[in-house]
Design a protein that fits this description.
Shape: globular
Family: Belongs to the trans-sulfuration enzymes family.
CATH class of the largest domain: Alpha Beta
CATH architecture of the largest domain: 3-Layer(aba) Sandwich
Number of domains: 2
Number of strands: 12
Pfam families: Cys_Met_Meta_PP
Order of helices and strands: HHHHEHEHEHEHEEEHHHHEHEHEEHEH
Number of helices: 16
Distance between the termini: 61 Å
Strand order of the largest sheet: 1-7-6-5-4-2-3
Strand content: 5-15%
CATH superfamily of the largest domain: Type I PLP-dependent aspartate aminotransferase-like (Major domain)
Helix content: 25-40%
Organism: Stylosanthes scabra
Radius of gyration: 22 Å
CATH topology of the largest domain: Aspartate Aminotransferase, domain 2
Largest sheet: 7 strands, mixed
Keywords: Pyridoxal phosphate
InterPro entries: Cys/Met-Metab_PyrdxlP-dep_enz, PyrdxlP-dep_Trfase, PyrdxlP-dep_Trfase_major, PyrdxlP-dep_Trfase_small
Length: about 450
């Protein structure tokens, strides 16, 4: 059974495909897609009794009036597009509404929301790759994704991965094995090094080889629209910026309707058979948060740019794509949705773990600047030393190849309080750092 999804968002046409390398078509596609406008145009679900907010459909199973209806539902003749639902592991009305919003956000034909970001990534890769398949992936990835590709998939599924520097197009091209490589996988903005992927060129190269491009856009919702830049599939950890509350674990797959429907197939679909089902109550919560995602992202990004600029002016080693000395600053300016800024994360390279830990400890326990915690997109600033936390799955050589310094402090810049209040807290900690002889200013 392959039920058709109901999505009212505009579909990606051939003219939006960057495989042709047509710069004018690409520029036009980028100009056309505004995530906020797309979200405002998406179908709005009202509540059962006329409420402006949709009702939560908490049922696990759904009734039919006639036995023949159920038979037709299981053969795929009737589906969610006609408001026919079987079982919430397959499709749930509340989760389907969130999926429509995610499709609108990313400008894709369809989307499906899952229980976590890792389940979204795993389901896509297992749908696109079979036993003996091959993936080309960026060296700079979230540690959990790296472990999935480096350790789990080879052991459990005989799917191997070649890790490359996606900045080096020749290296990427040489790693692709025609007829065997199924996926080119990378993050739009890498975790934690904040390198920006050249999505148009990487997509063009992959499509020439018949390879599907999957992009993790968790770090840059609203800021980048990978499918409009040529990618095929976008995955998200909705737990981060999209949720914004650090209280929900969720993920999403955004892409062609044909792919999403195949993932829901009764016999071969990874989403259907592995069952990473989202709770409809979670879907409702997230649907209420997405409308103000654009406002939140603008403030995250604005503060990150101000802090990064001031830190650099003080002589610290700062990594932020919005700074002119960032190696991908011009690239990002050429592909981003400019009204949303350059991203809500920055990194301070303290070079050693000792200096990184001192800074984070002081900022949390004395300066009230933020919290030592993994994850991102929260209204408070979250800080972690990536090498010993979210990238700890990598060995020292892999960290070095990914550009992860032992003292790299990743900051997800929050928006609570006033900007100047938070900057004062950060600046005082930096002064104390210097007084203790732990500064590593340029």
């Amino acid at each position: 059974m392959t039920n058709t999804l109901l999505f009212t968002n505009s579909k990606r046409s051939r003219s939006d495909d960057t495989g042709s390398g047509d710069a004018k078509k690409l520029a036009s596609a980028i100009h056309r897609h505004d995530p906020a406008s797309a979200l405002a145009s998406a179908r709005h679900e009202f509540g059962e009794h006329g409420g402006v907010n949709m009702s939560i459909e908490a049922s696990a199973t759904f009734t039919v009036m006639e036995p023949e209806t159920m038979r037709r539902m299981f053969t795929g003749e009737l589906g969610p597009d006609g408001d026919y639902f079987i079982y919430s592991r397959h499709f749930n009305p509340t989760v389907l509404n969130l999926s429509r919003l995610m499709a609108a956000l990313e400008g894709t034909e369809a989307a499906y929301c899952t229980a976590s970001g890792m389940s979204a990534i795993s389901a896509v890769l297992l749908q696109l790759c079979s036993n003996g398949g091959h993936i080309v992936a960026s060296r700079a990835l979230y540690g959990g994704t790296h472990a999935l590709l480096r350790h789990f998939l080879p052991r459990a599924c005989n799917i191997t991965t070649s890790f490359v520097d996606v900045d080096d197009l020749k290296m990427v091209e040489e790693a692709i094995v025609e007829g065997k490589t199924k996926v080119l996988y990378f993050e739009s903005v890498s975790n934690p090094t904040l390198m920006v992927a050249n999505i148009p060129e990487l997509s063009r190269l992959a499509h020439q080889k018949g390879v599907t491009v999957v992009v993790d856009n968790t770090f840059a919702p609203m800021v980048l629209s990978p499918v409009r830049l040529g990618a095929d599939v976008v995955v998200h950890s909705i737990s981060k910026f999209i949720s914004g509350g650090a209280d929900i674990i969720a993920g999403a797959v955004c892409g062609p309707a044909s792919l999403v429907n195949s993932m829901m197939d009764l016999h071969q679909g990874t989403l259907m058979l592995l069952g990473p089902t989202m709770n409809p109550k979670v879907a409702f919560e997230l649907s209420e948060r997405i409308p103000h995602l654009g406002l939140r992202m603008k403030e995250h990004c604005h503060r990150a740019l101000v802090f990064a600029t001031r830190l650099k002016n003080l002589g610290f080693k700062v990594i932020y794509p919005g700074l002119e000395d960032h190696p991908h600053n011009e690239l990002l300016k050429s592909i981003y949705n400019k009204e949303y800024g350059f991203g809500g994360l920055l990194c301070i390279d303290m070079e050693t773990e000792e200096r990184a830990n001192w800074l984070m400890h002081h900022l949390q326990n004395h300066g009230q600047f933020g919290f030592m915690a993994v994850s991102l997109g929260y209204y408070e600033t979250l800080m972690s030393c990536s090498g010993s936390s979210t990238s700890s799955e990598m060995d020292p050589e892999e960290k070095a190849l990914a550009g992860i310094s032992p003292g790299l402090v990743r900051m997800s810049v929050g928006y609570i309080g006033t900007l100047e209040q938070k900057w004062s807290q950060l600046e005082k900690a930096l002064i104390r750092l210097q007084e203790h002889g732990l500064s590593n200013k340029n």
